[in-house]
Specification:
five-stranded mixed beta sheet, alpha+beta, Ubiquitin-like (UB roll), membrane, disordered C terminus, 378 residues, 2 domains, 3 helical TM bundles of succinate and fumarate reductases, elongated, iron-sulfur cluster binding, transmembrane, 2Fe-2S_ferredoxin-type, 15 helices
Amino acid sequence: MAIRVVRLASGLLLMAFVFTHLATLAAGLMSLDAINAAAGMLMAPWMTGVGTALLAGSAVAHLALGLATIATKRTLAMRRGDAVQLVLGLAVLPLLTPHILTVRVANAYAPDLEVDFARLLTFYWHFAPVYAIQQLVVVLVVWSHASIGLHGWISVQRWGERAGRLVTPLLFATPILALLGFVEAGKQVLAALRDDPAFAADVEAHWARLQSAQPSLRAIAGTVSLTYWSVVVLVVAALAVGLLMRRRSPVHIRYDGGLEGVGLRGLSILEISRRSGVPHASVCSGRGRCGTCRVRVLSGAQALTPMQDVERRTLGPACAADSVRLACRARVYDDGVAVERLLAPDADAALARRLKDPDVAPAPAMEAAPAPATEAAA
């Protein structure tokens, strides 16, 4: 439970930082002065000692927990959205490293270097346009990774439908406005570079100072890259070893409808379902949040791991007392397990929210997601 809280809290804090960064860029649709004013309000808290410590701690914790999750995966079977989020998450640090070094580290190696938004935009658009393209990619990668995670968490909350009406448009509008502001501000700094000799001289002087720090920055970037990819290789190796060891201990599950699943000892019922191609509902991708993967254990309960607090809270006391388990939480360690899937494979977030309503009785066996109004009317 503590790990889930840390992962969620660190992710939300990092997303808040990214949002303030993108909102500052969006101010470029008005003027460079607007960008500097927005930065003074939105970015200032992150520049304090407390803000920097929170940001760094959240980044380290979120990355470490993400890599640990990969290393301890019991199967490679996953939904397409989860695979996309995983790949995007691995790409964040390599893409962000040059920006972090320029903004937060370079002034330690270059005397009198001050990198504000106007100078940084000029660096990107005039002196190093390849970094301008990289920043566009960074925005898309970081925001997409964060949005997938946030949407997955909100969608299964009781208040998720109401919050989604506000959050979903914001998730789409924020990067679009930021990219437009980035481009418009780029036009403005290029015009200022051409028409304002004082601005041009100031930017060129700071660019020269930044260049003097490049050998040190490249050395740091190389160390960060080598360390990061070495850790990723170790994580992948741990994953591979775990998968190979589990291949030696197959287990079987019987499902309703005469279906059968075959998996590896230690996999959850849901993981065996995915591995065996057995249709199984799971709105939250197996995180124990939504309750849609629930099954009734017909036999072999002794071959499953005991129920934990996370599972008990999601199911509620009535279900937990009726041999009902979350397929994503119940791991299988022996043969003889037979289960009945209680919700149809097409169960959606709306049904997951309804299951969390204490006034709603547990869903009947194999209840499907409610049909859209247009189809019901037809």
